[in-house]
Design a protein that fits this description.
Mean pLDDT: 74
CATH class of the largest domain: Mainly Beta
Structural class: mainly beta
Order of helices and strands: EEEEEEEEEEEEEEE
Number of domains: 2
Radius of gyration: 21 Å
Number of helices: 0
Low-confidence stretches: 161-169
């Protein structure tokens, strides 16, 4: 049982519990294409140092790793991503890229800031080529979302001059909550609409529990 006291118009308590949920809205303005290269590197067989980060995510985003090794029999590589998420939490994630040219892996987390990326394993001595790390369609939410049904609306705001845009208008990009990941608090933009969201503004409205 919590202890509390009231004195001089102030309440002092050991613990206060607040139930219920709050409606919040995250705006992702003028999102870059998912093909935008954030990190690119030619990997030598002995490569082990941090890769050069060419571009920070425009909004809290996930990353895609494209294996462009010239040898299809190249072994997979593990890459460590380190940075911060949309809530300001320090996060790190190891991502495995499968063997073979053209294979792609994705981070589960969305990064608001990417501090470093570095390989954890080396490639085959017979393999050469590049690994390109691009932005993905995964958007990071600024508050926890505990149930997929807590997603209420996901809308894109078209910019004048874009394909399918008439001036500036709203277009609903999802009618269900299947694109939400409640473990990583993300929304998957890639599957939200058949047409490209590049250059538009995505607005995600959802319920979050009081923290």
């Amino acid at each position: 049982m919590a202890r509390y006291s009231l004195r001089d118009g102030k309440i002092t308590a050991d613990k206060i519990s607040i139930s219920g949920k709050l409606m919040v809205s995250d705006t992702f303005d003028n999102v870059l294409a998912t093909t935008t290269v954030a990190v690119a590197s030619t990997l030598a067989t002995s490569a082990s140092g941090a890769l050069t980060i060419a571009l920070q995510p425009d909004v809290p985003r996930g990353f895609a790793i494209n294996n462009a090794f010239q040898a299809a029999y190249a072994t997979g590589r593990n890459f460590m991503f380190v940075g911060y998420d949309a809530k300001g939490n320090y996060i790190s994630e190891s991502v495995s890229v499968n063997p073979g040219a053209g294979s792609t892996a994705h981070t589960n987390n969305a990064f608001a800031y990417l501090g470093s990326v570095y390989p954890l394993t080396q490639i085959d001595a017979d393999a050469s080529g590049t690994v390109a790390i691009t932005l993905s369609g995964k958007l990071g939410l600024s508050h926890p979302i505990t149930n997929i049904s807590d997603l209420k609306t996901a809308t894109r705001y078209l910019t004048a001059g874009m394909a399918n845009a008439v001036g500036r208008s709203n277009y609903n990009i999802v009618s269900s909550a299947t694109l939400v990941n409640t473990t990583y608090d993300t929304f998957e933009m890639d599957g939200a609409a058949a047409d490209n969201l590049t250059g538009s503004t995505a607005i995600i409205r959802y319920l979050t529990e009081f923290q």
